[in-house]
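step: validate -> pass
step: tokenize input -> pass
step: predict -> running
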Amino acid sequence: MSPMIYTLYGFAIFFFVFWCGIWFVHLLAITYGKVKLHRKVSIQPRETPLPSVSILKPLMGVDPNLAQNLETFFTLNYPVYELLFCIEDKDDPAIAIVNSLMEKYPLVDAHLFLGGSVVGVNPKINNMQPGYEAAKYEYIMISDSGIRMKEDTLLDMVQHMTEKVGLVHQMPFTCDRDGFAATFEKIFFGTVQSRIYLTADLAGINCHTGMSCLMRKNVLIEMGGIRIFGCYLAEDFFMAKAFTDYGWKTSISSQPAMQNCGTCNIASFQARLTRWAKLRVAMVPTMILLEPLSECMIVGVFASWAVNVLFHWDSLVFYLVHILLWFLSDWILLSIVQNGSLPFNKFDFVVGWVFREFSGPYLFLHALWNPAIRWRARVYKLAWGGVAYEISPKIKS
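step: predict -> pass
step: emit ->
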């Protein structure tokens, strides 16, 4: 055979093996999700008291669900913890909500820190720095404003902090909300994101997102505190990397992080997904090739061509079966992550799933085309490796 034929068969073998690997990831995520998620929290008596926790809550602005989200932190079923609310702008309307909750729950150890402290380009780190410096307990928890907690969520996270684990984080998911945008978010976090997150955790790969995480304070102090991550926008990724570099393991808890932002629309969520894609590419450049190939429609095209070359199977039939099986596996995984009946019907799932699958590759290409990152009112550029530089609005092109 000619070299061209060998090359053709080589590509066909590669895409078929890659396709098999993607399906192995599907099976791992479904199996691990069934075993790992929503396990009952142990309330058995302990020989040693539970460690105390300092909870950092960086806030900026108000959405319709902020008050009820924050209130869930005042009602946690946990013996000793403190709430450290951090707000950079002294005129932020979130201040009034925090003060009202502190008055409503005077027995909860809660404090408000205003003004922030500039230690880098990352506004979240700058906002949290004063609260971090005042934290008095052995564990530090960072929790975003949109997170809604169950009474036993903190206990669940602490129970995953075993002897060799230095950081426990929650897999992102969403609360039940009305509207197509909420359906789209739940489908994304319950399928694409969950599949990656569960498989990465099982394999010991860094998949940490910082919306809800628990860390050992003594290890953070040894690193130099949270200020050393102020040069990154994806501070969560580099925090987890630092813990593993110091010899500690990371783990996800059995309860997902329930995002409950009161402002939910397609445009803002897609902007969020695009920003994440830009961060992933800057931190792990191999994602430029691997991420598009892991999309259902794209990998299906290459796999359909490959099986036609290798086994002379009908490409169209293979492609349609591939899409159907992917759709069913996503439904199963989403049901596992939801741990109950879904808040929408099967037709809504079909529409949301198809929209996600077709928009995913487009958003990734858009992220590559325009690598500048907009975060609230600021614009950043990323160097390879993830270090961020803020661009002045007057200078940017």
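step: describe -> Residues 14 and 306 are 8 Å apart (CA to CA).
step: cleanup -> pass
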